[in-house]
Amino acid sequence: MTALDDKQETGTRTQAGTTAEGRGNREETAARLKRLLSFKNISAIYILVALVVIFGLLIPDTFLTMGVWRTLFDAQAITILTALAFLVPLITGAFNLAIGAEVGLAGIVVAMLIAKSGLPVPVALVLTLAAGAFVGLISGLIITKVKIDSFIATLAMSSVLTAAIAWLSSGRQILGMPDQFRVLAVSSIGGITMPVIIMLVVAFVIWYVSERTPVGRRMYASGFNHHAARLAGIGVARLQVGALMAGGVIAALAGVLLAARINAGDPTMGPDMLLPALSAVFLGSTQFRGGRFNVWGTVVAVYVLAVGVKGLQLMGAPGWINDLFNGVALLLAVGLSRWERSARRAGAIGRVTRRGRRAPAASD
Fold this sequence. Notes:
The protein has helices at residues 3-37, 39-58, 60-63, 66-91, 99-116, 121-144, 150-169, 179-186, 194-212, 214-224, 226-231, 236-262, 274-284, 295-314, 321-363; strands at residues 188-189, 192-193. The protein is mainly α and 364 residues long.
C-alpha cells in the first residue's frame, strides 16, 4: 500500500469518525430535548395549559379577562413567598409546619409596631424581619440542640405562635395603618406590582444560592442524607438553623405584604397559607429537577393550583373547593414525589446491575 493510499484511508476514517460523532451529538441533543419536554418532567406546565383551555372554553367571558389574570398573578405572589419560606429549610431536611403561623405573626407584629408604637414604616419592617429570623432561630435550636424531630418541633411552634398572635392582637384587627404602608402592596413598576417584583427577586436569590453555590450543594446533601453529609464534614445543624432563619425572614416578608394588602393586622391571616404552600412545594418537586425540591417548580405549581381554584370558583363552585383542591393536590404531589424518587433509585440500581453483569464478559 502506498503512502497516498494510507493518507486516503486515514482521511476516510477521520471523516467517518467525525460523521459518527456528529450523529451521536445530534442524538444526544434530541434525547435531552425529549427528556426536557416530557410530561414526566414538566407535567405542571401541560396541566396549566389544559386548565386554561378548559376554563377558557367553559367560561371565556370571565376567565379570559385581563383583570382576572392580573389579580391572580398579584395575589399568588404572597403564596409563593410562603411556599419558598417552607422550601428553604425543607431542602436541608427540616420540615417547618409553623410557616403559616410565622406569616400571621409577622402581620400582627408589623401592624403593632406601626399603628400602636408609632414607629416609622422602614424601622417596623426591619424589626419584623428580624423577629421572623428569631423565630426561625428558636425552631432551629429546638431541632438541632434539643434533638426534637422537625415535624413535632415546628407543629408545637405553630401552636405557640398562634397563641402569641391571639395575645398580641386580643383577637381583633389592628387598624390605623398609614398610606405609606399600603404602598408596599399596591404600587407597581412597569405594570408589575411590588409583591410580584419582590417575589421574583427572592425566588432568583434562592435559586442561585441553592443551585449555583457550594452552600446550596451542601444544603441538598444534608436533605438527601444528613448522616452521610455529617460524615463528609458538612455542618448539617448549622445549615438547618440558617435555613430556618432564612425561611423565617421570607415568611415575615410575606406577612408584611399580606398586612399591607388589607392595610391592617388580622389575627386570622397566615395559618391558611400553610396548605397551599405544602401542596406547591411537593408538586413543584416533580417538575424540572426529577423529584428534587426546587424553586421554579414551586413557582409554577402555585400558579397551576391557583388557576384550577380560580376557574372552579368562577364556575360557581362552593367556598370549600379551595381547601378540597389544595388537599387533593397535596396528596397527589406527595405520591408523585415519592414515586419519582423510587423510580430514579430503581433506575440507578438497574444501571449498576447491568454494568456488573457485563464486566466479567469484558474481562474474559
